[in-house]
Amino acid sequence: MLLLYMVIIAIITALNNPFLISGIYDMLSPQIEINESFEDFIKIMMPSRLKVSLLAGFGFGMRVIIITVLSYICNIAIEKMKNISIKDWFQIITNGMMVFVISSIAQCIINYITNRDNSILFSQYTSLLFVSRWFENINPTSMAYLPLSLVNIFNISFVFYVSIMHSKKSGSLSSDSFKFCSIIFTSCLLCFVIIYNYLLFIYR
Hints:
The protein is mainly alpha-helical.
């Protein structure tokens, strides 16, 4: 199942690449030389299309593995909770990641219907990024952008699913399972935010 999801994510990323390239061109256009047309920009960016697609699929798989391992280790560390095998954790996390596959497919369909990149608009309607309508300083290059975008209906749905399955497998109270899964997933996202903002700060 994980391999199937990785392939789907790679294909969706490849299909979305033309729209992403267009969005990057629009964002960088003030810094691009006047004599460099959009067609020239595409020729420069297209060779990396396959690499980006493969990295997206690989990154998706690594995300599943990292969350699975962390969940298993934390589950062992907390004595009051019944231990769940790493195989069961892997199955729970993989099934839960379906919500992100669905969101990627939905975004791709919207891009092709509107014939433009709608990733920012999509995030605004599904996450706390809707506040960016009132705060002009919140944009893709600001440090507040990523944390707000991660508080979205897909991440919340994932945590709810994993906590419900953990409660069934371990026999723990639903509230304890939700707290446990929320802490693990939030910690993973926090590490990602720190790394992202660090790189953004360096290359700004």
